Amino acid sequence: MFHRTAKTLLTISLILATGQINAQDDSPAGWHGTGEFGFVKTGGNTDTESLNLGLEFIYEKEKWRYTLNAAAQRSEQDGNTDAQRWTVGAQSDYKFSEKSYWFGSFRHESDKFAGFDPVSTVAVGYGRELIHDERHFLLGETGIGYRTEEDATTGESEENVIFRGRLDYRWTISANSEIANLSLVESGSDNTYFQNDTSLNVAINSRFAVKLAFQYRYNSNPPPGKDDTDTQFTTNLVYNF
């Protein structure tokens, strides 16, 4: 069953990517994005399977930029689901100058790894391109928002105002390789959430790339019985469109 799920998710991602390719134009404006897929299976004394999938769609036109993204991770051990996580997000940016913009963002997540199910945040704020040259790109965002999160075991929920900060850095090493680092913090009175994604992308051709990624997640006040830190290392095939 897990193999069928993996094949279905991969098929859906490729169909969506193909549809968006037909919608994009030749100018910098229009649709573009990425889809990525990773699957690992081990056998022997213990049978384990893990699946991770990611999609991101970006549409740019004149002063507006819209971003939609989704990610899912699932692991099984000896045929039983060990843990799973899925996230969906959306953001709208209004560019009022060459480098600055206002943003509105939304993030919704179910995280059985960390014990929160679900977590929802909305935020508004200011963003700016701090560096943008041939090799380096750095974008920063700061804002305020509102978060609701629920303990997956007890059902107890918390709601509070949050500070949201985000840094997006990319370093073009060569014509076919790039290092990227994306940091997100959402801090409220009951919990501070921090996520950092570091990746190395190596292009195979103009469309496909291999991505090695390390993710670090931290919750300052996790549910009872859960660790405050989660880490994940993945190897994915990436399709750029």
Notes on the structure:
The chain has 241 residues and is mainly β. It has 1 helix and 12 strands; from the N terminus they run αββββββββββββ. It has one helix spanning 2-23; strands spanning 30-42, 48-61, 64-77, 80-95, 100-111, 116-132, 136-151, 157-174, 177-188, 192-203, 208-219, 229-240. Strands 1-2-3-4-5-6-7-8-9-10-11-12 form a 12-stranded antiparallel barrel. A hairpin with a 4-residue loop joins strand 5 and strand 6 (116-132). The protein is globular and about 50 Å long.
Structural class of the secondary structure composition?
Answer: mainly beta
Please work out how many helical segments DSSP would assign.
1
As a percent range, the share of strand residues is: over 45%
Write down the overall mean pLDDT. 85
Query: What is the strand arrangement across the widest sheet?
Result: 1-2-3-4-5-6-7-8-9-10-11-12
- Amino-to-carboxy terminus distance: 30 Å
Shape: globular
SSE sequence, one letter per element: HEEEEEEEEEEEE
Largest sheet: 12 strands, antiparallel, barrel
Low-pLDDT segments: 1-27
Count of distinct strands: 12
Structural Rg = 19 Å
Helix content: under 10%
Kindly list the characteristics that best describe this protein:
globular; 70% strand; 241 residues; mainly beta; 12-stranded antiparallel beta barrel
